[in-house]
Amino acid sequence: MSSKFWAELSNDYEKLFETEIGYDVVIYAGEEPNVKEIHAHSNILCIRSKYFRNAFSNAWAEKNDGKFILRKPNISPYLFNIILMFIYCGNIELKNLQGSDVLKLLIAVDELNIKQLISHIQEYLIEHQTEFLYQNATGILETVYQHETLTDLWNFCLEKICKEPKILFDSDKFINLKAPLLELLLKRDNLNMKEIEIWEGLLKWCLFQQNMENNPTKWSNDDVIRIKRSLYRFIPLIRFYDIEPTDFFYKVYIYKEILQKDLIHDLLEFHIVPNIKPKTNIAPPRNPNLNFIIDSTLTQSNHIPLFASWIDKKGSSYYNNKNIPYDFKLLYHSGRDGFNAESFHQNCDNKGATIWVAKIQELIGGYNPLDWNGNGIWKSTTDSFMFSFTDGKNISTAKLGYVEKPDNAIYCANNQGPHMGYFYCKGDNKWINYSNSTNYPDIGTIPTQLSVDYYKVFQIIKK
């Protein structure tokens, strides 16, 4: 018989923190004149945080009279005490904090690498400080951009700005926006602005960066070269073919000197010649009602970098949402396109690598690095895999299995949906799992026969 006394243990550690018995760490938190000296115990800090473990083992912290000395002017004494209370006894209370303080606390725990709190505080902000996030979406986005682990908050603010972009484009902060962040926004398919407004905003940003006035007739050759260099990375992101002819003539064509001659020629031809089609592949019109893939019910914000990491076999060295080397383009949705093999192949054949995700009580799915076209043939690969999530919202519940018999990795047939090893979808939502003869390791308890709520297939496109 075992007994657990977590509350008593937590209280004892809280008393240890408060009484400071045997402390060997001195932390100076806050900036002058509000610096406060806080005492702690190195053993406890090391166990609970990799940051402190590295600080003490690598002698980042100075040492004086046998005590480690840490100086953290960027974290207020009040917030540092909250963090230490969590480290010692696992307790944290956020409801009495203002939204700005919760954000500062999140940045601090990210710096100190306290992973349990990173997820908890992000969830709290999104669920209980929505108004604060909406009012400060731009500033928060810029702040979070510097912290790779804060993906949930990053995606929340990014979606808010895409839905209501004028809170950024009409603000004083826009002209000072960092170039990589602006580039990321202009890539979004669901940026809810007219294309001409996006173009005008980009020009406004560029001319401020170059300290120039918006008058092409006064630009010198050197001015034109400077502007072209500044806009080089952004021009391909503007969907010029979606700009109305009148706006193109008065608001784009007058800047022809800073645009490529081939682009101007093709756009003039497109607007003047009846029924002419663009000569190059162009991005589809932006769709403000498009739910970005990471907010899909089948793919949460932290699934996408995980999928990309599995594709590249990165092991535990995962990508984050800012360095994913692939785009995930939705090809097929059973609820939208029809739950039949014909529709699956119409949408997914000859598209190269894809990943499919199906919803039952859990999430299951697989990666096909080849394609789905062909009828009655096995395809060989060593890179395919299958996966499952017992809890779709918790990536720690994932089970992953790479193919073990490459010659029978992928099967293509016109009367079937996804077919990997001996797990496959018949066209009428009957899924078969011959687990005793599978080509993939066990990815969980999946019935021999099942139906799914719905499933999606995404094309994997190298950026």
UniProtKB/TrEMBL annotation:
Q: What's one Pfam family here?
A: TLD
Where the record annotates domain BTB, the positions are 23-96
Which Gene3D superfamilies does the UniProt record give?
A: 1.25.40.420, Potassium Channel Kv1.1, Chain A (3.30.710.10)
Q: Which PROSITE patterns match?
A: BTB (PS50097), TLDC (PS51886)
Q: Which residues form the TLDc domain?
A: 297-463
Q: By what name is this protein known?
A: Btb/poz domain-containing protein 19-like
List the source organism: Rhizophagus irregularis (strain DAOM 197198w)
